[in-house]
Sequence to fold (215 residues):
Amino acid sequence: MTIDNDLAAKLGAAPVVPLVGGNDPAVAVETAKALRDGGLSVIEVVLRSDAAQQCMEAIIEQVDDVIVGAGTVLTLDQAKSVLDSGAQFVVCPGLVDNIVEHCLSNSVPIYPGTMTAGEVQRAYAMGLREVKFFPASLAGGVPMLKALGAVFREMRFMPTGGISTANLGEYLALPHVLACGGSWLTPADAIAAGDFDAITKLAREALAIADDTRK
Ligand code: 3PG
Fold:
């Protein structure tokens, strides 16, 4: 199975992408296992700490049955580096041509952030049919996504930013939402307390909402 097909299958079954941060590879591994055990197996490790890439590498090496991507990728060098480390998809907060081109030419799924019709149209012109919608709640939330979806009929969106169990169902009810991303599944206090069961519970809750919305 190619990564595209595997990723599509996993997101189809569980259209929620938890963000994993932090600075400690051992903790990142436990967090990823807890998420997977809760049914979420597409994980975005955000490059927001000095050891983020090591956290991603540790998950790739030690956690079975997950697809691991790198998020908060800001430069082409970072994109090349995370791909060398085994990242299976790339997420950026914005739309950057050289990162998109590099990923497309290497057949790596890339989700650049967009929040306006102009950005979505530019992504569309670059050949993308899936983009991040970020920061979702501040960029207009569900009403804005409805408006964009009406115009860009082939585009699918990954809203991220301000999503939680409270509004996940509203986003997933939109047929052009590929998946929702967010950090609500990996709360810092639960991680600091070593309460990985809480993370599994949050993942299960999200999956139940997804199943209810999409069945
Ligand atoms: C992102 O990187 O996509 C956002 O910072 C996630 O936003 P959230 O913390 O509100 O989920």
Observations:
- The first strand starts at residue 16 and ends at 20.
